[in-house]
Amino acid sequence: METVVSGIRSTGNLHLGNYFGAMGNFLKMQHEYNCFFFIADYHSLTTHPTPENLKSSVRQVLAEYLACGIDPDVSTIYVQSDLPETAELYLLLNMNAYVGELERCTSFKEKIRKQPDNINAGLLTYPTLMAADILLHKAVKVPVGKDQEQHLEMSRTFANRFNRLYNTQTFPEPYAFNFGQSLIKVPGLDGSGKMGKSEGEGNAVFLADSPANIRKKVMRAVSDSGPTSPNEEKPEAVKNLFALMELVSTSDTIKYFEDKYNECAIRYGDMKKQLAEDIILFTAPIYEKINAIAADDLLLNKVMNLGEEKARDSASKTIKEVRKTMGFRK
Ligand code: TYM
User: Fold this and answer.
1) Residue 46 is part of a domain; what is its CATH number?
2) Alpha helices in the chain (DSSP H)
3) Which structural domain, as residue segments, surrounds residue 208?
4) Is residue 74 part of a domain?
């Protein structure tokens, strides 16, 4: 059975981008892969959360993961910091990760632009920590969105470098994975591109958003004044609305609005109304479970403890092997 590792940072509620990028169809295939889903709380430290924030975000993400349908008895769902083996592998991999390659990473350059007052070493070494998460379980498939493609390439580089340096076959090559032809980038509602947690109010639809909130957000989504000639190329914001429809609407609905667009008869108000209802239909089964699960401390603790135990099995095996290979006494 192939091993799959998927992670989400504990920096806030999950949105549709997280769902389709990091989980999506894997939820239906938990029996076919050896799946690890984890909450990346070490990664969230780059933005300096308070201890209270850290604690509550981890529980919230866990509750939302479970509401999405991860079965803790089938898959392994755990908290990254519960496995200090992660931190050890991160340290060891960092010794063979070069500052030059880390500095060239697109996500690092983006972070420098976004948070110029807090360019910490954790941001620079984000890709080695991510490689540690993946290699710790010797995963070969990693469900991620398009934004993480380069990080996966770096994970392969670190894995191959380790194998070469120590003349072993310790790590298999991990690949970014989605069920479609290519990795997915779920657009935001503000016309600017990617759906993201920190992209500003109104950009993201969260799984925990109420139907009323979803309607409000979608109705305010950026569109334009409509095409003026048949079969016109769509502007970015309109492409985004159609891309969201592709995820949640039926093919008949999509075709209806495509035709309307091509005939210059589209009414974006109608399209957004339909999109909002289709998103609500899609998220309702998840939304309805979140609060009850989040309030169930007993369940959350049980799941975290079980996950820690299961994840430690493979993590300790890998760390032992790595230590031995590198020449440590124990
Ligand atoms: P985070 O929390 O930023 O994102 C979690 C996952 O959601 C995906 N994602 C998207 N996919 C498509 N469209 C979007 N608009 C969108 N927004 C977010 C991300 O690609 C990601 O898959 N670095 C990871 C967390 C992580 C991880 C790992 C993932 C840490 N270690 C090991 C896999 C394996 C991240 O981006 O977190």
Assistant:
1) 3.40.50.620
2) 16-18, 41-44, 51-68, 84-94, 99-103, 106-114, 121-124, 126-135, 149-165, 211-219, 236-248, 251-262, 268-294, 297-326
3) 197-290
4) yes
Burial of 299 (0-12, 13-18, 19+ CB in 10 A): middle
Give the residue from 2, 3, 18 showing the smallest Cα distance to 67. Answer: 18
Q: Based on the domain organization, do 242 and 150 belong to the same domain?
A: no
pLDDT at 193 (0 to 100): 86
189 in a structural domain: no
Same domain membership, residue 136 and residue 75: yes
Total number of domains in the chain: 2
Write out residues in the chain with pLDDT < 50, as ranges: none
Closest atom of ligand 1 to 40 CA is 30
**Tokens matching residue 314:** 């493979």
Same domain, 112 and 258: no
Looking at the structure, do residues 99 and 141 belong to the same domain, yes or no?
yes
- Are 281 and 308 in the same domain? no
| Closest C-alpha among 8, 13, 12, 17 to residue 240 | 17
Q: What percent of the chain has pLDDT over 90?
A: 92
- Please tell me the pTM assigned to this model: 0.96
Instruction: Tell me if residue 111 is catalytic.
Output: yes
Distance in Å, CA 191 to ligand 1 centroid:
20
Q: Which of 41, 134, 148 to mutate to test the pocket of ligand 1 (most atoms within 8 A of CB)?
A: 148
Position in ligand 1 atom list of the atom nearest CA 144: 22
pLDDT the model gives residue 85: 98
Q: Does residue 190 lie in a domain region?
A: no
Q: Looking at residue 305, what is its pLDDT?
A: 98
Per-residue confidence (pLDDT) for residue 197, from 0 to 100: 85
108/243 same-domain check = no
**Domain assignment present for 191:** no
pLDDT in tens, 290-319: 999 999 999 999 999 999 999 999 999 999
Pocket-testing residue among 8, 125, 158, 184, ligand 1, by greatest number of atoms within 8 A of Cβ: 8
| pLDDT-above-70 percentage for the chain | 100
